[in-house]
Design a protein that fits this description.
382 residues, alpha+beta, four-stranded antiparallel beta sheet, 22% strand
Length: 382
């Protein structure tokens, strides 16, 4: 038997700045993702990756920075995300920064989903922290009031200095800047020194790229906001979560049965949630597996051992049970509805209605079979 040897490895982790969670006015914090930034300044949007089925493959590329989308110049993350559904399916003019050059492209938005299609671009956007260009500054933001329970609206320090979205920050208090970390360091140093203003040198986004300097006020309140910011580890804590969690009953059969029932109930709920998300369009039909896909996955699971195969078979059984009880005319859920109807009406539905409903049910199941079979073949071929 081979013995396991523990080896210690020293790894240097670069810390990452902690940013303010800037809440836009009129958007409830519980419903909106806060915009990270500082003093009302936020980064532009960068394309981290594109999905395999993205309509923008060949148009956009990882690393592209969004300078404009539609009529929105220098959009923040929230603006970028909101522009897509507001524009709807079709081509949308975009200006991007690629390899230091501004490029005009026609982005594509397509409707994704069947019953509730939603406009999507098939891209994964992130904040462009590596480029010290600013998005449209936030003139106002909501912060926690002194009572600690409510929110109040305050003007941001950059609301009165006239910085334009898309401007490139070049120096802060005379120190050259090449990334947002530099902006963070400059602002933090000014707050630590209890300065009442910060000198920000910038390059305008206008065609002439004029250079200018503005003085951003920094009162006691905003110095406190900046002083509260520290550093985050670049290695996220979720990296230390176990890959697999093994639950066991400790040899207690009653506890084992209870755990099995709990797991079955969780799988039932997850199956219904998946069906709901299919109708909403947040889960694409390309994620569905049919008989071919089930056999293919089962063969992979079986290689890991009988216990994993048994769990996989249980998962399939729960899915079939949920589908069997859906209110479709051809499965048990539909028959149950017939019995309820007969209970209240005193007679079963007419034979003609039952035949028509059964035909509709067959068509739905046949459609699902064709779609899943097509998905399975594409996965195997790909």
């Amino acid at each position: 038997n081979e013995s396991t040897v523990a080896v210690e490895v020293d790894i240097a982790l670069a810390p990452a700045p902690q940013w303010q969670s800037m809440y836009e006015v009129g958007v409830a914090p519980s419903l909106a993702r806060p915009q990270p930034g500082v003093l009302g300044l936020a980064p532009l949007v960068e394309i981290r990756s594109l999905t395999d089925s993205s309509p923008n493959v060949g148009i956009l590329a990882p690393g592209d920075v969004i300078l404009r989308i539609g009529n929105q110049q220098a959009p923040r993350m929230r603006t970028f995300r909101e522009t897509i559904p507001l524009h709807g399916a079709g081509d949308i003019p975009m200006s991007i920064l690629r390899d230091g050059k501004r490029i005009e492209v026609q982005g594509r938005i397509v409707d994704t989903g069947i019953l509730d299609p939603r406009p999507m671009m098939g891209v994964d956007p992130i904040e462009a922290w590596g480029l010290p260009r600013i998005a449209q500054p936030m003139m106002q933001m909501e912060v926690v009031a002194e009572d600690g329970t409510s929110m109040e609206v305050v003007d941001t320090p950059v609301s009165s200095v006239g910085l334009l979205g898309g401007a490139m920050v070049t120096r802060i208090d005379g120190v050259a800047i090449d990334s947002w970390e530099g902006i963070w360091r400059g602002v933090h140093a000014a707050a630590a020194a209890k300065q009442t203003a910060i000198s920000v040198e910038f390059e305008s986004p206008t065609p002439g790229q004029e250079r200018g300097v503005v003085s951003v006020p920094l009162d006691e309140f905003w110095r406190g906001q900046v002083d509260d910011l520290g550093w985050n580890a670049s290695l996220h804590y979720t990296n230390f979560d176990p890959l697999y969690v093994v639950r066991h009953s400790g040899g207690n059969p009653i506890r084992a049965v209870s755990m099995g029932l709990q797991e079955t109930a969780n799988l039932v709920v997850l199956t219904y949630l998946t069906i709901d998300r299919l109708f909403r369009g947040t889960v694409g039909v390309e994620q569905l597996h049919g008989p071919v896909g089930i056999v293919h996955l089962g063969s992979k699971v079986a290689d890991r051992g009988f216990t994993y195969l048994l769990f996989f078979l249980g998962l399939i059984s729960v899915n079939l049970a949920v589908i069997n009880f859906l209110p479709l005319p051809i499965v048990d859920g539909g028959l149950f509805l017939y019995l309820v109807y007969e209970k209240f009406k005193g007679r079963p539905p007419s034979v003609g209605f039952q035949n028509g409903a059964a035909l509709v049910g067959l068509m739905l199941i046949a459609t699902a079979f064709v779609v899943t079979f097509y998905n399975d073949i594409l996965r195997l071929v790909g």
